């Protein structure tokens, strides 16, 4: 039976001060926020709270070891609520600390013990990509397994997802590009997922509409067009999060995780690398149904013919975030078989959502294509 739900309460506020007045983070609260976010928007405004910057526990995107370092630093400390103010990685880490038990982290992610909610969780995104504020998913690099892995559990849903558009202002171009393209990929993969419903597809298409219109404006007018559309990009990210939170993501994400873990490529950027090649593989196997309807929708948004839709979309995304080959990230040709094995053995949760099944040979062929830059 297919179902659809939006679990968190969603609040749209227009200033940081509105957020502070409504939620009063402070004494007895645990707040996850980067030092940059603290200085830029919350200086002197989180008095009494225990504030964690996960980057103090290691470099790059979050790992199980970093989370266990935070667990150790909080030993013996009590807290009421958990807040996260940041990009998707910060939100994903914070979700774990709303649980009764976090460590050993690998055991939690492999479901060797249950995820049990203990603390109220309030999530405030500062990028427009992951949609993590409305999903029940946390993604970490599991160092012993040499890949990223997602934990999906109802205990990870936020109680409130709070959208504050000014927090997106001034994002570096590459950070914005990677996050917004990630949101687009969420909308596309959720639309073609076999778990999609009529309800989830509404959110997929609405996210696509806003994002592609915004990308076209940026391509015409430059980054100033982005700053005029912060609320739209933030809403689109949340819409896409609702869509994939119900219907799932698929091979684009599955293939990106070994690259992200091994070469420390940011999540959205790694997804952008995989996007075109995965959908080329789908079309080569079966071009009908939802994939064809998706293509018609993209063609309509871009004002082009059906056969031009994906090439035109990829050319547009290239203006937002120029793509690299796998070799440019330091990947060796000898790594590709190992990446493929990781996908086929550890990413079954995602690969089950593919538009059509992909074999090991087909996954390897995608990696080889991206290595050559074809």
TrEMBL record:
Pfam families: ADH_Fe_C (PF25137), Fe-ADH (PF00465). Residues 178-371 form the Fe-containing alcohol dehydrogenase-like C-terminal domain. Gene3D superfamilies: 3.40.50.1970, Dehydroquinate synthase-like - alpha domain. Keywords: Oxidoreductase. GO terms for molecular function: alcohol dehydrogenase (NAD+) activity; metal ion binding. Coiled coil: none annotated. Residues 47-164 form the Alcohol dehydrogenase iron-type/glycerol dehydrogenase GldA domain. InterPro entries: ADH_Fe/GldA, ADH_Fe_C, Alcohol_dehydrogenase_Fe. This is 4-hydroxybutyrate dehydrogenase. It comes from Selenomonas bovis.
